[in-house]
Write a structure and sequence with these properties.
By secondary structure, the chain is an alpha/beta fold. It has three domains: 139 residues, no CATH class; 115 residues, NAD(P)-binding Rossmann-like Domain (Rossmann fold, 3-Layer(aba) Sandwich), CATH 3.40.50.720; 341 residues, Rossmann fold (3-Layer(aba) Sandwich), CATH 3.40.50.720. The protein contains 22 helices and 22 strands. The strands form five sheets. Strands 10-9-8-11-12-13-18-22-21 form a nine-stranded mixed beta sheet, sandwiched between helices. Helix 6 links the parallel strand 1 and strand 2. Helix 15 runs parallel beside helix 16. The longest helix is centred in the first third of the chain and has 30 residues. The chain is elongated. The protein starts with a helix and ends with a helix.
Amino acid sequence: MWIQKNNAPRWLIFTIDAGICLASLFLAFLLRFNFSIPPEEIRDFVFVFPILFIVRSSSFIITKTYSGIIRYTGTEDAKRIFLTISYGSVVLVVLNWARYYFIDESFILPFSVLIIDYLSTVFFMISLRIAVKVLYGELYNRTKEKSKVIIFGAGESGIITKRALDRDAGTKYKVVAFIDDNEKKENKEIEGVKIYSFEKLEEILTNNEVAHVIISVQNVPPLRKQLIIEKCLAHNVRVLNVPPVTNWINGELSFKQIKKINIDDLLEREPIKLDEKNVNKEIRGKVALVTGAAGSIGSELVRQISKFSPGLIILLDQAESPLYELDFELCTEGKKIKYEIVVGDIREEERMENLFRVFKPEIVFHAAAYKHVPLMEENPSESIRTNVMGTKIMADLSVKFGVKKFVMISTDKAVNPTSVMGATKRIAEIYAQSLGTESTTAFITTRFGNVLGSNGSVIPVFKKQIENGGPLTVTHPEVTRYFMTIPEACQLVLEAGAMGMGGEIFIFDMGKSVKIVDLAKKMIKLSRLELGKDIQIKFTGLRPGEKLYEELLNDKENTMQTHHPRIMVAKVRQYDFPSVSNKINDLIQLYQTQNNDLIVGKLKEIIPEYISRNSVFEKLDASE
């Protein structure tokens, strides 16, 4: 239809508005004189209308009330009409008083007529636009049934979300309910939509074909958000999330900005409360070196450290392109921090020594490492060269150049290792811990599990597999892992680094371990796909060196609580540095042989608890 495809011309809207002004003035006279207008008042009406027309038309032209697209009328349009008519009526009042005091002591219009005219003009102009908007919506959508939407949160954010939905996608969606935890709001209505308690959500989802639940509240507790998402997933309802106010375009929410919930929200925990005073004391004005700065953990550490006004951050990595991207990010975001990009390899001692000599770092965050278990199982020599020798070079130089603190990023795979990667990280832990007993540099180790969204982690892999139509590959039906977000992990690293005095291995509260197959199923549901019909899950078997489950402590360790509820200190065995140093030097020398059996055999000699699994190196355990 024509009305569906075209906008009414401005001259037509202007003419209709002028007609409303004429009708409102006539109605005002009728009401003022009880529907029996005296002849002399009719003569005044003919005289008065041109004056009112000029005043109203001028105000319309100045404020351009006729320029909006009527079918998209919103609160701003109604506000503009209200102010325009108000300004015009004020002008008419001034003209009325001017005639009375300066001409012939009579009014152009009775004040009662002015008041009635003002109210009726505002009412009819706004009502017409709303009527056209509703009519357009019905005509345009007459053959389509609107998708039902529930908004969680009946506060200001919820109202803004509904209006954004009505404005931007009102022909497709209809808000059928608000859900709110505030009992005082229950059974009340907002713009014709009823408010229900959270307990009613299940019932509403069961009795209605709801397409979306939009979470409008910004500070929903993680457990509450997870419960909402779980209920919605059970009914195959997509969950959307309103972004923070700071991300709204020009301070106004658009429906297109409302994004779908992702898997991170299902694994989210209560936000970490940092001891910012202590962290600030450790970092402010200091020279900080971050190794592996272009990686997922390293780059987030740089972002976190920059908040505490360091004197200089040295960004060290051998990966040129990711370093360039991080440099571009720091430049474009206008962060007023001093940083230095250094392309270099922690395994090249001469290059690293020059770095320490030139920049004199006071605190080192050592995140550079090879971390992919199957790859390192196939390349043991490179694993010891980076994870052991690289760490040794950085630790030795830290002692030589008087670094105050050396914070090493380790992994839960170093506990009772079953892989080359885990074993090399455990040796790196031992070396750093034992070296600390011989120096003034405080060596601190942080140990945690998988981080969401890191390079090569399961979440990005599943996302890509879903985009490609599947299948989602899971190694084993019972495999479990601990997860935390990258910012969460880095915040805990900073906190542990600040509280550490040297020699500690800090382990983080990772929450409950998660079954990977359950994670895959939830990601499929979040994508609104049906397992077994739209996409499959394929079990591929454990990869070389992989465990069914991860541990944060080995059998001979236990923990002590710190002042931070999410950080504990592992009570670990102490090692004699000369003995450890000799063994590690012998291990590094084996790199020259490129003999994997010799290298892994030496690893097992240094770490007796290292028992290979799903690996060709199981033969070395059997031979003992």
